[in-house]
Write a structure and sequence with these properties.
6-stranded mixed sheet; 2 helices
Length: about 130
């Protein structure tokens, strides 16, 4: 059996519950949901939903870097949002992180997210 390896980046916000930022197993990185928290302050400082998407993805990018991979190797993401009416803004900010090849993705509207966020994104990423 391939060993499980916990991944934790000091460049990403600490988990706000009893979970880890990511787990690597059998060549795949399973990233927990990333809230749009500023890693230095642990608070949401984004001015709008597009900025929240950018911060969430920047946090995921830091976790990927800690594991020796990058968002360009993302296989699948899930976006949770409390404002599906902002789908176009979400897509525009999301596209800034995936230029040539976008991963498979699901977007789900939810009633609420932790800490009052309007966006949370998780990812499954191939390790390098």
């Amino acid at each position: 059996m391939t060993e499980l390896k916990t991944i934790s980046s000091p460049e990403a916000p600490k988990a706000v519950g009893p979970y880890v930022q990511a787990v690597a197993h059998a060549g795949i990185l399973y990233c927990s949901g990333s809230l749009p928290l500023n890693p230095a302050t642990g608070t949401i400082e984004a001015a709008d939903i597009a900025a929240e998407v950018r911060q969430s993805l920047a946090n995921l990018a830091a976790v990927c870097a800690e594991a020796g991979t990058n968002l360009g190797r993302t296989l699948r993401t899930t976006i949770y949002t409390t404002r599906l009416s902002s789908f176009a803004d979400i897509n525009a900010a999301y596209a800034e992180f995936f230029d040539v090849r976008s991963p498979a993705r699901t977007t789900i509207e939810v009633a609420a997210l932790p800490l009052g966020a309007t966006v949370e994104i998780d990812a499954i990423v191939a390790l390098s």
